[in-house]
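Section handout, structural biology tutorial.
Before the tutorial, make sure you can parse a SMILES string by hand: atoms, branches in parentheses, ring closures as digits. In the record below the ligand is zinc ion, and the chain has 312 residues. In the tutorial you will relate the predicted structure tokens back to the input. Do not try to memorize them.
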Amino acid sequence: MRVRRLKQILLFGPYMVFLIALIMCVVLFGMVMRQNRRIEAMEEEIGHISMNQDSLIEEVSSVTSSVDELGSAVGAISNELSLVDIGAYEKGTQQGHARVAWPRKVYLTFDDGPSANTEKILDILDEYGVKGNFFVVGTENAELRKMYKRIVDEGHALCAHSYTHKYSEIYSSVDAFTEDLDRLYSLLYEVTGTEPVAYRFPGGSSNSVSKIPMSEFIKVLDRRGIRYYDWNVVSGDATNPMLPAERIVENSLSELSEFEEAMILFHDLSNKTSTVEALPEIIEALQESDIPIAVIDDTTMTIQHYINTKSK
Ligand SMILES: [Zn+2]
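Predicted structure of the complex:
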């Protein structure tokens, strides 16, 4: 009986071992498979997370491009706004002071001083930081003579306009003209220590008062190397009765656009108070248009009536 059992054990033993090993294999295989599934699930989850990340990045970039679009839209709008501004500005200048866009330079010239207004004119020019051109006559008044010096000291152009300003005397002969010229030049040199920058004929080089051709007087200036200037814009302040300041402003600015360099004629005379009154507005209009206000120098264009009338 024992032997039979032993035989049975010996016979079935290997089967049992094989069976156990098989069962263990199946169990292990199942475990491996389960682990694999878990790994796959985890991988899927990771993929999902990175997909989320990708879509997040996409969203951020779309927001950024929206911001960019918004920026360029703002740029376009501000461009249009500035165009609107320019339009309004041009309209404003056309309706107001006239279009003063062209002149490269404007010369403010004051004839016939010094006078009771010279200090006021100089103060206004100083206040706006601009320079003027003073075509002065001779005076015996010691107080007024100080103005020649102040004009030079403050950087304005001191120019000559005859000593007496009396047409009948100055234009009576070449000698009389020369004598008057010398008298004024000596006085100005004596007071300021400098020569005048330029000359302006009383009544201009195109005046019809002189019986002697103006070319004779121009020769005198040429021999001395003196340049003369007339004007191309008239403020109208010479008229009687005196023009109101608004009209002087209007006259001074309305024709400027016709000239590359504009030389405006004003008068520095005691009774010309509206000229003083008009000056700040004229300067402000020029400064707002960025037009330089200049002093006469070697680079100044030839603004001469005599030559202009001859060439026509
Ligand atoms: Zn004059």
